[in-house]
Amino acid sequence: MLEVKDDYPRSLAACKIADVLLINPIRDGMNLVAEEGPILSEHGCALVLSREAGAASLIGDEALLVNPYDISATAEALHAALTMAVPERQRRCAAITAAASAAAPQHWLAAQLDSLDRLDSPDRLE
């Protein structure tokens, strides 16, 4: 039986040394990993990112966006990421890091709470 468990320290270490990070959800998710992975990268990783991830709207210009259902295009994007020149990979990683760290966590939390408040708003029920 295959046992799969989360190993947070190992995940952080992998992000730190990765040349390429693949985040490929079929629906919105993994946004924090897509943003935190490049921040943790010591030498600048390339990011291959599902266009379905919410983070794609924030960092999509610097990531290699893929359709999560398209295996061939994902393989091509992984090849492009693995063969990308180091300065280009570092430039893209720095841009993703800047975008991901531009807003303080308090702003993100406030936006989430505001969205929940709007869902509960009596105006929404009309």
How would you sum up this structure, described in words?
The protein is 56% helix and 10% strand. It is globular and about 55 Å long. The mean pLDDT is 86. It is built from 7 helices and 3 strands; from the N terminus they run H-E-H-E-H-E-H-H-H-H. The protein starts with 7 loop residues before the first helix and ends with a helix. The longest helix has 15 residues, at 86-100. It is mainly alpha-helical and 126 residues long. The chain has a 3-stranded parallel β-sheet with strand order 1-2-3, with helices on both faces.
Number of DSSP-assigned strands: 3
How many whole angstroms does the radius of gyration measure? Answer: 17 Å
Mean pLDDT: 86
Which quaternary structure do these chains form?
A: single chain
Question: Structural class, from secondary structure content?
Answer: mainly alpha
Globular, elongated, flat, extended or rod-shaped: what is the shape?
globular
Low-confidence stretches: none
Spatial gap, N to C terminus: 52 Å
* Percent in helix: 55-70%
State the major sheet. Answer: 3 strands, parallel
Strand residue percentage = 5-15%
Strand order of the largest sheet: 1-2-3
Helices, by number, come to 7
**H and E order:** HEHEHEHHHH
Could you give the topology of this structure?
Layout: H1 8-17, E1 20-23, H2 31-40, E2 46-50, H3 56-59, E3 64-66, H4 71-83, H5 86-100, H6 105-119, H7 122-125
Parallel strand pairs: 1-2, 2-3
